[in-house]
Each structure stands twice: as C-alpha cells, then as structure tokens.
Amino acid sequence: MSIVDISFEVRCERLPNDYGYALYKALAGTLDWLEDEVSAGVHPLHGTAAADGELFLGRRARLMLRLPADRAGQSLALCGARLALGSGLEVGPGKVRELMPYATVHSHFVSTGAADETAFLDEAAAELRGAGLPERMISGKAHAISTPEGDLRGFSLLLHGLSPAQSLAVQARGLGQGRKIGCGIFVPHKSVVAVGAAE
User: pLDDT for 42-77, tens place per residue?
Assistant: First the structure.
C-alpha cells in the first residue's frame, strides 16, 4: 500500500496545547472514513506554546495527514472547512507529498503504553524487530496527551542508520499507538544532534 502525506494550509489564532484528541475528533466529523482507516495518521501541529496552556500557530503552520494514497483525493474535502477547535481552525488548500527516504527519522511522540523509559525502549525495539526493522534508536523528551481513556504517555524517538526501504517502511507503518492523535509518526531528520532538546 502506498502511503503519502497531505499538507493543508491552516489559519488559527490559538489552540489548547493538549489538542491531539480534539483535533482528531474534529477531523473525523468531516472525514467520515477517518476513524475506520487503520493506516491513517495525523501529524502534530507545530506552533509556539504560551504560559497559559495555549498553542499559537504561525502563518507557515500546516495540518498534515498521513494516509493511503487512495484516500488523498477524499481528504481534500477538508479544504474550506472550519473546525471547532480553539479559536476555530480554518483549513485551506491541500497538497500531496510523497514520503522521503532519509536514513534518520524522528517522531515527536511515540507511545507504547509504557511510562518508564527503559520499558518504552524495550517495547519499541520489540515492535521494530517484529517488523523486520533495525533497532538503532535514541529516546528523548517525555510527553503525555489526554484522551477519554486517560493519559497516553511516551517519548520522542529518533531512528537512525536506515536503508531507503527501511525508512519508507517505518514512515508508512508508524510505531506504537495513537497515530490519529499525533503519536508514532516519523518524519525525516537531518542529524542525530539534540533529539532530547526542547521541541
């Protein structure tokens, strides 16, 4: 199955800092197939965190979905939507982007269900091994995200020394749980420097 990213322009003054589950539910309200699409993922949004617990998005912020290629056209139904999230998130034009095979990839937040870093690394290694992928990784900053079932906890994670085929495979399949709320989605990373630094 071919997997691609769809990048949408967005306009939004502010979001709650812990927005992952609310964003997924808002997207699923427009894309009625999203909840049942097991290969779907929603990239985390990037912005500036404020002291009051809100996230401010700049003009270059993008809403990114990782989807099977045959869902790309359907996802464009989001264009022009205004999602009831924060101050209101307006979705603009979308573009399809192919995945790029970098030897080093990084995920802002991977959750295996373990809050302990050693257990997390063991579980991540087992999942990679089961998928026939190398276990060369560096964990970083701890994260948590709220869901109706309770907090999901994990760490940022960098995978390195990947062949082009391995890189595309881990980007396509992800790692751990919570892909629809921004977890376990890997993107190219140009260096192994400072994966644990502030993000």
Answer: 999 988 887 777 888 888 899 999 999 999 999 999
Host H or E run for residue 157: strand 150-159
> Distance between CA 145 and CA 168 in Å, rounded?
26
Statement to judge: residues 114 and 157 lie in one domain: yes
Percent with pLDDT over 70 in the chain: 95
* Angle (nearest 5°) at CA 131 between 136 and 5: 85
Which amino acid appears at position 127 of this protein? Answer: E
Domain residues for the domain of 73 are 3-98
Same domain, 62 and 114: no
Tokens 């751990």 correspond to 176
Tokens of 47: 């912005």
Confidence label for 93 from pLDDT (cuts 50, 70 and 90)? very high
Classify 7 as helix, strand or coil: strand
Q: What does the alpha-carbon distance between residue 61 and residue 170 come to, in Å, rounded to a whole number?
A: 24
